[in-house]
Amino acid sequence: MCGIVGYIGYRKAHMVIINALKRLEYRGYDSWGVAVVQGNKLDIHKQVGAIGEIESQEFGEATLGIGHTRWATHGKPSDVNAHPHLDCNGNIAVVHNGIIENYLSLKNDLMKEGHKFVSETDTEIIAHLIEKNNGSLENAVFSAISVLKGSYAVVVISPDERKIVACRNKSPLILGVGDGEFFVASDTPAILEYTNRVVYLEDGDTVVITDSGYEIKNNGIKVERMVELVPWSLDDAEKSGYEHFMLKEIHETPRVIEETIAGHVSDTIELDVSFAAGISELVFVACGTSLHAAIVGKYIIEEMSGIPVRVEYASEFNYHTTPISRSLVVGITQSGETADTLEALRKAKGNGARILAITNVLGSSVTRVADYVIYTRAGPEIGVAATKTFIAQLVALCLVALKLSMLPRSELERFILEMRLLPEKIRKILDEKEKIKEISEILAEFDNMMYIGRGIAFPVALEGALKMKEISYIHAEGYPAGELKHGPFALLGEKTPVIVCIIRDETYDITLSNIKEVKARDSPVFAFSDEKDREIDKYVDYAVKTPEVDRIFAPIVLSVALQLLAYYTARVKGCEIDKPRHLAKSVTVE
Ligand code: AGP
Questions:
Q1: Measuring CA to CA, which residue among 579, 577, 468, 570 is closest to residue 28?
Q2: Domain enclosing residue 217, as ranges
């Protein structure tokens, strides 16, 4: 939700900033802007739309600046609402990610004092609050943020002092430490081209950066924070010849599975599950794709360990009062920054629950809230649609389920062996994608579709539908296969294809019956099944076959095929695949 960046050093600031913003564009892409300090004044460029270029002569040799790519919250996308925002004198420039909840009352007070506003944003008040306060830029910023309520990562510059002042409260912000240069950014891919040494700033931190170094204070008190090495390379954050990040990221799945397994398994599963000691249940909280991973996790963990598992929308978790003091509350979030998930975990922690986080991002906010962390090893995911990170979550959840199970060692070893074969099987799907492409050309003609599945295939259907609607803009609903007859049947017919996710387990025969019911209502049926399933061809119009795997791994292989289906359908329709309209990769507002 908005990407922010700041640079101080020896390079041309506007070039570093535009580079960094392009890498942050997945966080928001409705408008953008840059401000640099040029002598004793600020030069600003702001505009609606995707990040473009700035003529070099516009910003010349400036080596201090800030930039922003926006996902609109307050005020529609426009040149005026784009960041940076300025004070009355145009002497203070601010970029912001987050939401200032009390901005209206602060704005009213400032207007009464004579401050003039030009935008509809909440951010603009920060520039005016800083202007109102006397003293050094650092002190003025500190006083300004002390009256803010809400979430913010803020970066400020002024031609009066050669420095950057940046603060963080509940919105991500990192400090990049280079040789003779420093960066601040919402996320590490923005700066990987220049440095992999970062400090993960914490809530309440203010950092003041000059050419010679930086000082961090937490709520006014000086603190030391560790400089950490980011384990990702620049190549991870580039398209590397693929047409879209999404396609590249789907193709990275085999490696992601290998690495996630390697992180937790040797001869046996080494994952430390002491977090589960003495708990009465697991409660998963998550959003979107991560929620679907949680539902898969529920099926597998309950089956393997007998421990009850609840799955809750993170955004609804705070509105009911089920006791959780003996629960292990598990936040699943690839970014580690999703505000709904973080708020749910904070509330659970406040009510005495133990917290486990499953995340893909080292140092992300969720790792500070959690008592225990399991890292997936997917590398940075740039495409807004979660693909490889979803698969990595499924692998991690399978490992948790297996570790919590009472299975004899020989059985566990069989599963580990099976897991190690998954990358090869996924490669086969990727190599044989022609059938999926063929189907996507047919599906691209429709405006509505249903995805159905039973048991462990039900969350696969939910995720398949989310992927389809998110990037192709085709209305797609995921349903338990048995639920269609309780209402959605009314939508069936030749204009509503049904995508069936089917697994050859105890749900197989009854799902075949559901397919017959759907066919009787004239909907074209497309099935995703495994290569040993010969029966299915008799019942459906098109069948995509994936390699045979143990049923607990079926969601993994089926999901990769469904991700490809969504990708190619969106491609046929000419959609903006990596940056679907109205969305952002990391949703840092509730
Ligand atoms: C999935 O394709 C979406 N981009 C979205 O549903 C996402 O999974 C959700 O916003 C949660 O993100 P998180 O895993 O970073 O918490």
A1: 579
A2: 3-235
